[in-house]
Design a protein that fits this description.
alpha/beta; binds the ligand CSC[C@H]1O[C@H](OP(=O)(O)O)[C@H](O)[C@@H]1O; IF_2B-like_C; 2 domains; 4-stranded antiparallel β-sheet; S-methyl-5-thioribose-1-phosphate isomerase activity; single chain; Rossmann fold; 17 strands; 7-stranded mixed β-sheet
């Protein structure tokens, strides 16, 4: 594989480096990833995170192992299956591993590095296409609210929802962003604020429970969120808290857009009921941890409900902003998601 460089992952001179997102924004530390166990741990601890990035990181690791020429086809197949199961909700991981397995079985081990590189470059291009389709939807002097993190820390390109925001900003539009801190792991408060500052985009950090008040006061012109899996009928899973944002946006007549590449669409999943939702450790809700260490504010053994994602039904979505275009509810209800993917020669 050639050297590859992105905000949160690098392949340099035969070594795979990952930016430890658990330590951001106050510490930028790079971790050397040398094995399947390393990558699985990094994904499960959200040192590597974000639906598209997870898939690309796993693909680069597999390509790296293949390039070392010290693994059999069966060992690489097992590695792909292990990586595929690292986190259950973001379908990009499964789609990417299936692409790598297809190459392994139809072309051979020596073609895996090339496929990993293709997937990397494809994500960069998909992010750019999404941004160009979405930017026209944001008018000048827009106040956009976003949830979790969907930028260059969640992809290997400019991002999805944040990519759209960044493109509109780069076009000279006056865009202000309300950033949901996104409990419990604070991807918004830690990572999106880091990205907004890096791109000099005006922004205001809020607690998740403040979003409805801003909508009621007419201070939000649009909500843009990412996705971890979009079902065939347009229902989608995203970071927990997205569903309540969609309900509040619907109630306050605020346009609500989901932004994703085609690699996030799961046409084999008929609707949101079929999307597996990852349950995570109680400690994430009982306290908080990061570069500073950890603090636990709940009584010992406090029972916790900690789904990492929730599902938003298609009827609450104003539009789906994909790399193939912007789709309305009637488009999606008529099966356009599947058609758009197939018409562009993209098969999942
Ligand atoms: C580019 S969309 C990324 C998507 O992934 C995030 O989840 P996590 O931080 O747990 O990987 C979140 O759901 C984002 O919307």
């Amino acid at each position: 594989m050639h050297n590859l460089q992105a905000t949160s992952i690098r392949y340099l001179d035969g070594q795979l480096w990952v930016l430890d997102q658990h330590q951001l924004p106050h510490q930028e530390s790079w971790l050397l990833c040398q094995s399947v166990d390393d990558m699985v741990n990094m994904i499960q601890h959200l040192q590597v995170r974000g639906a598209p990035l997870i898939g690309i990181a796993a693909s680069l690791l597999l390509g790296h192992l293949a390039a070392s020429q010290s693994y059999t086809l069966e060992q690489l197949r097992e590695a792909a299956e292990t990586l595929r199961a690292a986190r259950p909700t973001a379908v990009n991981l499964m789609n990417n591993m299936d692409s790598m397995l297809a190459v392994l079985h139809t072309q051979g081990i020596e073609y895996l590095p090339q496929e990993a590189e293709r997937l990397f470059n494809e994500d960069v291009a998909l992010c750019n296409a999404i941004a160009q389709h979405g930017a026209p939807l944001l008018g000048n002097n827009s106040n956009v609210l976003t949830h979790c993190n969907t930028g260059s820390l969640a992809t290997v390109g400019v991002g999805t929802a944040i990519g759209v925001i960044q493109a509109a900003h780069a076009q000279g539009k006056n865009i202000h962003v309300y950033v949901d801190e996104t409990r419990p792991l604070l991807q918004g408060g830690r990572l999106t604020t880091w990205e907004m500052k890096k791109h000099d985009i005006p922004h205001t950090l809020i607690c998740d429970n403040m979003a409805a008040l801003l909508m009621r006061e007419g201070k939000v012109d649009a909500v843009l969120v990412g996705a971890d899996r979009i079902a065939a009928n347009g229902d989608f899973a995203n970071k927990v808290g997205t569903y309540s944002l969609a309900v509040n946006a619907h109630y306050h007549h605020v346009p609500f857009y989901v932004v994703a590449p085609y690699t996030t669409v799961d046409t084999e999943c008929p609707d949101g009921n079929g999307i597996p939702i990852e349950e995570r450790a109680a400690a994430e809700v009982q306290g908080v941890s990061g570069h500073f260490g950890s603090v636990n504010w709940s009584p010992e053994e406090t029972p916790v409900f900690n789904p990492a994602f929730d599902v938003t039904p298609a009827n609450l979505v104003t539009g789906w902003i994909l790399d193939t275009g912007v789709y309305t509810q009637s488009d999606v209800a008529s099966g356009v998601l599947k058609a758009a993917l197939q018409s562009d020669g993209k098969t999942l």
